[in-house]
Amino acid sequence: MNGHRDWREHRRARTRQLIEYGGLVVKAGLAERTEDDRATMLGAFLMLRDLLDGHGDDAPADLQARWRRQGLRAFDADAAAKGKTQEEPMPSG
User: Fold this and answer.
1) Which of 7, 40, 81, 85 lies most in the core, judged by the most C-beta atoms within 10 Å?
2) What confidence score (pLDDT) does residue 4 get?
3) What does the pLDDT profile of the chain (93 residues) look like in tens digits?
């Protein structure tokens, strides 16, 4: 029975990971900008992979560091916006 439980936990973790990745695609505006064209998004992801494999002008570590900083700023901005929204008084009516 323990193996079945491990399998379920692994599946739940994998499902959560896929949902989170999908959320990043939406948060970045890629679904909207590509008109939900999955082939275009996959092509873009494959190009990102190639860049990280060193097939570009910039060093992969530099790109990854730059992308990470930009992502952290976006997460911070999102958290700040949510914090402001929660602090705003509810309209009376």
Assistant:
1) 40
2) 86
3) 688 899 999 999 999 999 999 999 999 999 999 999 999 999 999 999 999 898 878 788 899 999 999 999 999 999 999 886 544 444 544
Cβ burial 72-81 (10 Å sphere, 16+ → b, else e):
eeeeeeeeee
CA distance 13 to 79: 24
Q: With 0-12 CB in 10 A as exposed, 13-18 as middle and 19+ as buried, what is 52?
A: middle
In terms of C-beta density within 10 A (0-12 exposed, 13-18 middle, 19 or more buried), how is residue 46 classed? exposed
**Backbone Cα Rg of the chain:** 19
> Is-contact 37 43, C-beta < 8 A?
no
User: Per-residue DSSP letters for 32-51?
Assistant: HHTTT-HHHHHHHHHHHHHH
